[in-house]
Amino acid sequence: MTTRAMSRPLLTVALLATLAVAFTSVPATGEERAAAPVAGASGIGDPYWPLDGNGGIDVRSYRIANRYALGTKRLSGRTTVRLTATQDLSSFSLDFLLKVSDVVVDGVEADFEKTDGGHELRITPAQPLAAGTEHAVVVRYAGRPAKYSYAGQRNWLASKREVVTMNEPHMAPWWFPANDHPLDKAIVDVRIRVPQGREVISNGELKGRRVGRRTTTWHWRADEPMVPYLAFFAAGDFTIEKGRHRGLPWLVAVSQRLSERDQAASMRLMKKTPAVVAGLEKDLGAYPFSVVGGITTALNPGFALENQTRPTYPAVGAGYTSLVVHELAHQWFGDDIAVQQWSDIWLNEGFATFMEWRWAETHGGRSGASILRSYYDNVAPTSDFWRVVVGDPGAERIFDSAIYGRGAMTLQALRNRVGDAVFWRIVRSWIREQEGGNGSSAEFEEVAARVSGQDLGSFFTAWLRTPAKPAATADNGLA
Fold this sequence. Notes:
The protein is α+β, with helices and mostly antiparallel strands and 479 residues long. The chain has helices spanning 13-24, 260-270, 273-284, 321-329, 346-362, 368-378, 401-418, 420-434, 441-452, 457-465; strands at residues 38-39, 57-69, 74-85, 89-95, 99-105, 108-109, 111-115, 120-124, 134-143, 157-158, 163-164, 187-195, 199-202, 205-211, 215-221, 233-236, 238-245, 248-255, 292-296, 312-313, 338-339, 438-439. It has an eight-stranded mixed β-sheet, with no helix packed on it. The protein has a four-stranded mixed β-sheet with strand order 1-4-8-7, with no helix packed on it. A hairpin with a 4-residue loop joins strand 10 and strand 11. Pfam families: Peptidase_M1, Peptidase_M1_N. Belongs to the peptidase M1 family.
C-alpha cells in the first residue's frame, strides 16, 4: 500500500512519543495487516484438466539429470527447477508421477507429499516463499514410468531396446517434475545417462557426451523456452545425420531397430526437414528457433508430435512430406505460439493442417480453396464432423478430426472472405504479436478483425462456436 504525504501542524516531541506508543499498541487490521502465506493452487486454472499446472509459481528453467535403464525400463534422477514465487507461499505443487525420495529448496530440505491421486507433488519449504523471489528446487526420484497413469493416459512408450517420451497434452510428469501447462514456458536442459553404446536424442543442441566405463551421458539444451509437454528424449540405437541449410543447423535421427528399407526411407523423409522449413518461411517469416530436426522411432506411437525443434515421427516412409510440413508448421503454431487454454487447440491443429493445404497448393497440388470446397461438399450436414464446437470442443475431443479439418477450413474460409493479401497480413501479424507467448481464439479473432477492417463476428461464430454446418454464404467465405 502507498500513502500520500499530507501537510499537518508541527507536533511537539512529547506528543510524537505519545502517538508512537499509542499506534504501536494497536494491531493492524484490514489491508494494513500483512497477508499470511498461502498454499499454492493445485492447478493453473484450465477447465479441461483442473490439476494441470500449478498456482503461485512461474518456472524459469528445468535442469534434468536422469538415468534410464532400457532393459528394466527404470528411470531415476534429479531435476532442478528454478522458479519465481508469484505470491507469498507456504507450499506449492509440481506435477509429477514417480516416487520422490527427497526435495530441497534453496539448499534446505523441504517436506513433501503426493496428493490428488499421486499427480501433485506438494512441497512445503522450511521457510515460506515471498512473492517475487527466485528459488531453486531440487527433486530426486526413481521408478518405472510405465506403471503410472494420469487423466486416463498411460503415456510411457518403450521397449527393452528403445524409449521415446512423446505425447500430448501430457508427458512431462512421467519423467520430470513440471508446471505442466502451456502457460508456463521454461528453458529445458536435459542430461540422460544410458548404457554404453546407446544414443540419446532430445530438444535443441547437443552440448556434449560424457563417456564412462559402462554408461554414456548425453547433454542437450534448447535455447528458447518451451511448454513442458514439448520436451522429450529418445534413447536406443539411432543413426544421426546433421548439417546446415541456409545457416540453420539441423540434426535428424532414425532408429536402427527398423528394417534397413524403413531406415533408408525414414532418413530420406527426415532429411527433407530443412527444405520444408525454408518453404514455410516464405509464408510465415523466419523460423522461430535456433536449430531444427526430427527423429523417427521404431516404436508405434500412432501419431507424430511437434516436440520443439525436433518433432518425433513413426516410420511412415519417404513419401509423407505433408506430415513433416504439419509438424514443422507447429513450430510456429503450437510451439512458439502456445495455446492459452486447451480449448484453443484449433489454433495449433487448424493452422498446421492449413499449412499442409498451402504446401500442396504451392507444390503442384490442389488449391486451398478447392480442398475447402471438397470438404464442404462431401461431408453431410448430419455428420458428427459438424457437431464439434471447434472453439471449445471439450477435453475428450481436443484431437477430434474436426479440430484439424474444420480448423483448416476456418482459415481457408477466412482467406476467401478477406482476400489473399489481407489473409497473409493477418497471419504474419498474429505470429509477430504473439511471438514466444500464448494465444487464444478471442485474440486471433481480434487480430483478424483489426487487420482486415471487417466485422468478422458472425463468421467466427459460424465456424468456431456453432455445432452445425456453416451456411454456404459469402460472409462465411463459401460463395
